[in-house]
Amino acid sequence: MQFKTRGTCSSQISFDIEEGKLKNVRFSKGCSGNLQGISSLVEGMPADEVIAKLKGIDCQGKGTSCPDQLACAIESVLKTQQAV
Q: Which domains does the chain have, with CATH numbers?
């Protein structure tokens, strides 16, 4: 899945959810080291746990952050999957 971010240095996040767990998380642009770290840390974690840990994190008063945008993207995918 691909998600276009809003209000962050990264412009897009791609990831898969397999058996409820996050896989292949990749950020386009942004702070490379930090985003590689986030991607590595959330790899294989349950999607709902990632949302609980990352949702609401703020970056420099922007009202969002790359981790928050990942949480929003996961929520959006899960809601779509539940609606099907």
A: 2-83 (3.90.1010)
Q: Quick: pLDDT tens for 29-60.
A: 999 999 999 999 999 999 999 999 999 999 99
- Count CB-CB contacts under 10 A for residue 13: 25
Neighbours of 59 (CB within 10 A): 17
When pLDDT is cut at 50, 70 and 90, the band that residue 82 belongs to is confident
